[in-house]
């Protein structure tokens, strides 16, 4: 596989971010959700307004994985009060790691994950945490392989469907 580059996302990249967000979420979850719920979620979570707000948030960062300028995946991290739940100043949340289907299994997710760990260590975080859908065994295996352990659950809504996410964390002070 060609060299994968990682690039911090800025407001200039808004349309690319919107496209990769919608594409990867749809590829990952459309088989387990209704078309109606997928449309509602994609339109709300990945609207230009919402993504613009997230890009302006100094407690959130996005990174693209690219090959020859083509975006093939991305990472979203949240710090402090921008974390979706715990909001612990000594923690960092991986809110999203998504890779387009044709690049799954080619270590792109691992590169994005490694970037998240590097940033967490640079910020001297005690731990990194995330939520992963209980019906996404591939992602659960990925995080378990990387040392994450389950510590709780929370509800994640896709349209009007309330789904259970497994909350996992990795202690960085080993």
What's the gist of this structure?
Keywords: Acyltransferase, Transferase. This protein is of the alpha+beta class.
Write structural notes for this entry.
- This protein is of the alpha+beta class and 174 residues long.
- The protein is built from five helices and seven strands, in the order βαααβββαβαββ.
- The chain has helices at 14-29, 35-45, 48-56, 108-122, 137-145; strands at residues 5-8, 60-67, 70-79, 91-99, 127-133, 149-158, 161-171.
- A hairpin with a 2-residue loop joins β2 (60-67) and β3.
- The termini are far apart.
- This is GNAT family N-acetyltransferase.
- Keywords: Acyltransferase, Transferase.
Provide the fold topology.
Elements: E1 5-8, H1 14-29, H2 35-45, H3 48-56, E2 60-67, E3 70-79, E4 91-99, H4 108-122, E5 127-133, H5 137-145, E6 149-158, E7 161-171
Parallel strand pairs: 4-5
Antiparallel strand pairs: 1-2, 2-3, 3-4, 5-7, 6-7
Helix pairs in contact: 1-3
Order of helices and strands: EHHHEEEHEHEE
Summed up, the helix count is: 5
Main sheet specs? 7 strands, mixed
Globally, the shape reads globular
Strand order of the largest sheet: 1-2-3-4-5-7-6
Observed structural traits:
single chain; 174 residues; alpha+beta; 7-stranded mixed β-sheet; globular
